[in-house]
Design a protein that fits this description.
This protein is α+β, with helices and mostly antiparallel strands and 504 residues long. Helix content is 33%, strand content 22%. The protein has helices at 48-65, 108-115, 124-127, 136-146, 150-155, 164-172, 185-188, 203-209, 246-253, 312-320, 330-336, 375-401, 418-428, 440-452, 459-465, 478-493, and strands at 4-10, 14-20, 26-33, 45-46, 73-80, 85-89, 99-100, 159-163, 182-184, 194-195, 200-201, 218-220, 223-228, 239-245, 262-266, 270-277, 288-293, 301-308, 345-347, 365-367, 408-411, 432-435, 468-472.
């Protein structure tokens, strides 16, 4: 009897395998970081071969720590960094170029070219997304246009495209020897190629981008058996039965299954997802319309999303680029060494600004500096930037939904930071709630896979697994909250219109 489900969490900074039991509790974890490659300013890449090697190794770590084998695993779910783009040769299995990461901004000229006919919202009514460097579509175009011979190979049907879920699935199910080339609706909805209503690739949009349809994976639901692990895997013959993009997976893991429920994930970036049920809601306030999940043949659930590019990665930047801290955990103690931000505001527009502004011309700024400001104030300003950006997105959600959120469910690595979450509650004016199992991204992928094979019977059963761990309630008065937010928005305004043709 298989008593567990394994989730592969292929993230921006690492790949993990996490084994869950029927109660949704973590049994074992394996994790390996992969190299962050920065060839030029604004370019971010990963080595797909390294990611695949690490995936196999972390599966072994997770199984080995608790002495389990494939016979103990009922199903495998996959969750992934969305939009990160891999193009590879279907015959050799070799990537033609490094994976271009979701944060990468090199494709702005392609965005501008496509937007010349119809503006950045040219395809938004159909795909729910504005033209932006964030999404996969322009990254595929860049590879076809810039890797010698790639376009010719693609047009001959020899190249495959996928986000990292597809890359992992294809390799795990056999690669060049019969690997399954598929993705789920949540990842497909982040390419700019999928029609939200039909859940199919749109030939007219593909033609506008110049991407051959033969490159694209088959679109499946988020919860069904796509194939089984191949004979060379430690998981051989185990069904691969769930795929959800990381933010949708976190929403699913938070048991936010119903219309009006929401979560915010604090990771490399921050991502707030608000479930709109079976209705497609087109944002008027800078949010994305995306797919929340689709379980087998059941109706699709849609969502509004506020995507923030730089939150947790700002703390990494303080560590790696400035040497202000030696570990991410130190930022809280440094921030607590001062009473407030000392008048300093940090807007981390390193890749421009995502939701709700969508300003690729913005660049990061630390403003309000005086001789009084010290490194404690800078650390506090960095933490507060995470919360301020979240408030910007929630204001947009409230405006689109026509009803204010009454509490915010949170997850992700930064939710271990009490100072951050107390400030988050203060600046929002609503309670912030963290679940017992904070690894909701991997848990959501496990849930999708387990549902597909009958390991779990229903969404109701999953909802009963959710338990509150800690709650932060607002303690700031309204006048102070509005003063801080006013200054934050002033700081944001200073980052705009920075990039000219001659500015990197």
């Amino acid at each position: 009897m298989a008593d567990y489900v394994l989730a592969i969490d292929q993230g921006t900074t690492s790949s993990r395998a996490i084994i869950f039991d029927k109660a949704g509790s973590i049994v074992s974890t394996g994790q390996l970081e992969h190299e962050q490659i920065f060839p030029r300013a604004g370019w971010v890449e990963h080595d797909p071969a390294e990611i695949w090697r690490n995936t196999g190794e972390v599966i072994g770590q997770a199984l080995g720590k608790v002495n389990l084998t494939r016979h103990d695993i009922a199903a495998v779910g996959i969750t992934n960094q969305r939009e990160t783009t891999v193009v590879w040769d279907r015959t050799t299995g070799e990537p033609v170029y490094n994976a271009i990461v979701w944060q990468d901004t090199r494709t702005q000229p392609i965005v501008d070219r496509l937007a010349a006919d119809g503006g950045v919202e040219r395809f938004k009514a159909k795909v729910g997304l504005p033209l932006a460097t964030y999404f996969s579509g322009t990254k595929v175009v860049w590879i076809l246009d810039n890797v010698p011979g790639a376009r010719e190979k693609a047009e001959a049907g020899d190249l495959l495209f996928g986000t990292t879920d597809t890359w992992v699935l294809w390799n795990l199910t056999g690669g060049v020897d019969g690997g399954v080339h598929a993705t789920d609706v949540t990842n497909a909805s982040r390419t700019m190629f999928m029609d939200l209503e039909t859940l199919q690739w749109d030939d007219e949009i593909l033609a506008a981008f110049g991407v051959p349809r033969s490159m694209l994976p088959e679109i499946k639901s988020s919860s069904e058996v796509y194939g089984v692990a191949n004979e060379h895997s430690l998981l051989r013959e185990t069904p691969i039965a769930g795929i959800l993009g990381d933010q949708q997976a976190a929403t699913f893991g938070q048991a936010a299954f119903a219309t009006g429920e929401a979560k915010n994930t604090y990771g490399t970036g921050n991502f707030l997802i608000f479930n709109t049920g079976e209705e497609i809601v087109h944002s008027k306030n800078g949010l994305l319309t995306t797919v929340g999940y689709k379980l087998g043949d059941a109706p699709v659930h849609y969502a509004l999303e506020g995507s923030i590019a730089v939150t947790g990665s700002l703390i990494q930047w303080l560590r790696d680029n400035l040497g202000l801290i030696s570990s991410a955990a130190e930022v809280e103690e440094l921030a607590k060494s001062v009473e407030d931000n000392g008048g300093a505001y940090f807007v981390p527009a390193f890749s421009g600004l995502f939701a709700p502004y969508w300003r690729p011309d913005a660049r990061g700024a630390l403003v309000g500096l005086t001789r009084f400001v010290n490194k404690g104030h800078v650390a506090r300003a960095a933490l507060e930037a995470i919360a301020f950006q979240t408030r910007d997105v929630i204001e947009a959600v409230n405006a689109d939904a026509g009803v204010d959120l009454t509490e915010l469910r949170v997850d992700g690595g930064a939710t271990a930071n009490d100072t951050l979450l107390q400030f988050q509650a203060d600046i929002l004016g609503v309670p912030v709630v963290r679940p017992v199992v904070a690894e909701t991204t991997a848990l959501g992928a496990a849930y999708a896979a387990g549902l597909a094979v009958g390991f779990w019977s229903s969404l109701d059963e999953l909802a009963q697994n959710w338990q509150e761990d800690k709650r932060w309630t607002p303690s700031m008065d309204d006048a102070e909250r509005e003063r801080l937010d006013r200054n934050w928005k002033k700081a944001v305004s200073k980052t705009l219109d920075w990039v000219d043709d001659d500015v990197i």
